[in-house]
């Protein structure tokens, strides 16, 4: 039991540390690189990254399926099956890596007219895409070894490697300023650091006997078991990834100045990504618990879980989202400069979208635990297509705002599905009660938001001073003016019972 406890504690510690380091690095490097390379050139980096990001769909959901079956077979003592599928995966991901590389090279040499950029700018995008293609085999190879390590309960090791990667990325940023290196050189260093993770992963797998050898092989009988399960995951992931990763790509194609608009998108993305990263820990905690409830058929436990944790999740996410919505202008001014303060309205909409999206995390965990994803896939597909069309159409009018408004539409449609169908038909929940669990803390948060928003806090504290320190000070004061009454009202009216939350099973 001690070993098991150590596994969870160690995994949680290193996973949290890796996320924090990555978040801090991302938060710091955006204004630094933006200021050093300029808005347009930084946007080119983002375009190349977005093109490669979408290639993750070629995984076909195998990453989730492989870990599931590796863990199952290890418990059953079917080690030979793991060896056969692992070698089949080497073949599978090798093919994907080659396809990935050729697709990127195709865009690099024949896709100039796809993007709203100058010829000089596209030459830099071409160089970045060629760099990604060069390291494609190593990047996808890392996936093979990562699956084996995770299934062997060595997540802590993989997170340690990610921590080292983050430190090396920080060094690469320092090199930019110390050695005055070009954008493509920096991108090469960044891609190299990511690709090199393949080496320690492979050594660890070989040393611990998780893999017999690295020679590709093909055992279709065993591989198809994993593939059959993974395809259902892939169908859902395909449209979820498309809805997120396509946004900067569509901006680069349809916006008048693709590079600059994508740079604005990346600036705004930092805050929502941070919220999603922190809030995403709920999913990892909820899914094993809900799977247990579904397996035992404990209907009452599922209902209690859904009602209580929808409220708790809403409160936790509101504590992260509302301060950023309240201080959007000050946050952007302090972060990247006054010239970007006009983007604050889009930051508010994006944070609101994340807030709405994440309150259904408990319900989503229950749906996934039931394995009833067909309807979710269909609705997600329709929402994704409508979102992409709207994004492309609005680009000329709203520029970066088109990506955020279209994603709000996508999220609203998917969330609507939970209230219209899943809550009542699949989970047998009271939809009004579920809506109340979300609406009650939201109403309190919104009321206090309005009150603080119209307070002349900035004028009273700093006057006309628009320095970075002054904006940070205004953010702190506004947050406290909202936060303290919010927590007080929640406790006073017993909207949230902390003791009940902690004892919830």
Give a structural overview.
The chain is mostly helical and 505 residues long. The chain has 2 domains: 1-232, no CATH class; 280-505, no CATH class. The protein has helices at residues 2-37, 39-54, 62-76, 79-110, 119-134, 136-151, 155-179, 183-195, 198-207, 220-254, 258-279, 281-296, 299-326, 328-336, 344-358, 361-370, 374-398, 400-426, 431-453, 457-461, 468-492, 498-503. Helix 4 runs parallel beside helix 10, helix 11 runs parallel beside helix 15 (344-358) and helix 17 (374-398) packs antiparallel against helix 18. The two termini are 20 Å apart.
User: End-to-end span in angstroms?
Assistant: 20 Å
Number of domains: 2
According to DSSP, the number of beta strands is 0
Major β-sheet annotation: none
Number of helices: 22
Note poorly predicted spans.
1-5
The gyration radius over C-alpha positions equals: 24 Å
What is the multimeric organization of the chains shown?
A: single chain
Overall pLDDT:
85
Into which percent range does the helicity of residues fall? over 70%
- Rough outline: globular
Strand content: under 5%
* Helix/strand class: mainly alpha
Q: What is the element string, with H for helices and E for strands?
A: HHHHHHHHHHHHHHHHHHHHHH
